[in-house]
Amino acid sequence: MLDFVHDINTKVLFGKGCIEKLPEELAPLGRRVLLAYGGGSIKRTGLYDTIMKLLSDGGFEVTELSGIEPNPRIGSVREGVKLCRERGIEAVLAVGGGSVIDCAKAVACGVFFEGDPWDMIRTSRRRMKALPLAAVLTLSATGSEFDDSGVISNLETHEKLGAILTPPAVSFCDPTYTFTVSKYQTASGSADILSHIFEGYFSRTDDSDVFDGLAETVMKTVIKYTPTALDEPENYSARANLMVCSSIGCSGIPEYGKRGTGWPCHAMEHELSAYYDITHGVGLAILTPRWMRHILKKDPTVTPRFARFARNVFGITEGSEAELAEKGIDAIDAFLRSVGLPTCLSELGIGEEHFEAMAEHANRGGRLERAYVPLTKEDVIGIFRACL
Amino acid sequence: MLDFVHDINTKVLFGKGCIEKLPEELAPLGRRVLLAYGGGSIKRTGLYDTIMKLLSDGGFEVTELSGIEPNPRIGSVREGVKLCRERGIEAVLAVGGGSVIDCAKAVACGVFFEGDPWDMIRTSRRRMKALPLAAVLTLSATGSEFDDSGVISNLETHEKLGAILTPPAVSFCDPTYTFTVSKYQTASGSADILSHIFEGYFSRTDDSDVFDGLAETVMKTVIKYTPTALDEPENYSARANLMVCSSIGCSGIPEYGKRGTGWPCHAMEHELSAYYDITHGVGLAILTPRWMRHILKKDPTVTPRFARFARNVFGITEGSEAELAEKGIDAIDAFLRSVGLPTCLSELGIGEEHFEAMAEHANRGGRLERAYVPLTKEDVIGIFRACL
Predict the structure, then answer these.
(1) Domains contained in chain B, CATH given
(2) Which of A55, A124, A288, B20 could be a cystine partner for A60, CB 3.0 to 4.6 Å?
(3) Arithmetic mean of pLDDT, A339-365
(4) Is this model's pTM higher than 0.90 or not?
(5) pLDDT at position A50 over 90
(6) Touching check for B224 and chain A: CB below 8 Å?
């Protein structure tokens, strides 16, 4: 087991109705609050009204930053920073999914950053000084409610970059807020959670038993409950388990003690989203099985880990190690095809015209050459092509 | 899944040599430090010298509280509180196992408590105002390095009571510090970790999949690596996994979303330790299989959970649910007998003379009547008798 540092001081309130504690938890953080949210969904569901009433009754002064995009853009961050400075904002309250929370993190840090927020995103490699942040989660996917990072897009430069920013001080995780999440977004969220686990699970370290076991637990839970959530959107057990998996998935915990892997699928998917603004989880669902098949073929030394995946996640026990490895990939491929997401890039109208540039960019600094199975630019292009 | 609150803001530095970061992590907490430790073991291993040099080079002013007992006593807490007040201590540094860390927690809180520390222990049900606390772990067992509670004994009143105190701000978890832990203490520690998991795992809630999966992972890991640590005391993978299991075991996380169980084995064991000052893990190892057999017989509705335990922890799949349940208990019983600990109370010279009073006390306020399988005073006496 390799060394690690656990440093997530986010308080999580989990369960139906936990929002009632919002005023109590927010008061120590600040009275002048920036309320950050996305499109109109929180207005349609009534959550906006609930929160505004709690804030108003609690004597908070609210400034709104609305319209934050999926794949949140640097323009929204700039707007939020400006609002915070103009209004003397003391705390940021994000209400939404990972995009809103990521944007809110960047705003909270951007207030203290001298210079353009995009420079902050491009350069941040450690936690930043930030306004305190509270998050109300409405989508189980990115895990932004329980980590310190955020991903911001710049459509002008075709860049989608992750940065270390700040963790929420407190996150409100009420599974009932995800009852209204569409099948498409539910499935995309599950693909995202699974990918966060895959990225760390397929590693060269084999003696981090506790964290590998946690990773397998999260995978099994997502695979068990995603179909339930699709069939019965108001199944509390399903939504609750998926929400917990979201928070653990990107926390870094499932990777503790393990050698870094370069998160290759995320590196490749960020290129897809940056060029085509597609849903992150959809890109991951398309890429992941192709990446698995590519690396298993390229480097058979990873066979035992894929065989373990087949055994421990899908309960497949019949066959040689090589057969198990293939069967595990077949099983996750079948699962990802079963949840109703697009299964190839051509379905999204994406062709190969930018693959060269995307592959070059995904591998900038040679970072994919340090991945679990090192990937060259040609490998990346090959994986993109297999996704067509 | 039931509601829960996750609120553990302890930073954990994990790995060989992490102590080098002690000055950096301690400096923001305070310069005048109370160094709390137990017997001479940290002097024999050289850890005391290492820490004193780091503190001295870092310009810290050190006051020592030494000789903290296993099953730490209220007298040590009183002494620590007095030292803190006299010397204007700003931070407490605990170096040891759970007993030392528990005592240090009580000292850190006791400084701000008006009145005798034993009254604080008797009454505390929520986090207390406390001096900041850092912990250097030398024994994988209690999980005190990653929770907010502590257990303090009062030999005069035959009481051993748990209290909510304060979590460490930072814990240093270096598995190599446990290389010198004896077989007896290693096995006792593993029994303690397992018991922390059992106490939450055997619950009436069946849809907290993620946390049940985590619990099963910890159990499997302890069962896998304890024999390794006994055979090869310097096996880093074994010591590291056990240390991680220690921290997770008592954190409350494996119980998130689950109905409370009353922690019946701990309630009973605390009576054994309070009357006979035995090693906590030993008491738990003796009690647990007897408790399991007792409740399975008393309430067959728990059969499916015990069958799940057999399947998911021991991989036992042959037999009816009732047979699986029995086989699971047989398996954990055999494991606990295999690690070289005393297997019954008579081996420890304990007879039944105090069982009546101990059972009465374990069940004070009728708390064991709210356990997973409710226990009467007669049940508790029956379980104690089965341990003879």
Answers:
(1) 11-177 (3.40.50.1970), 181-386 (1.20.1090.10)
(2) A55
(3) 94
(4) yes
(5) yes
(6) yes
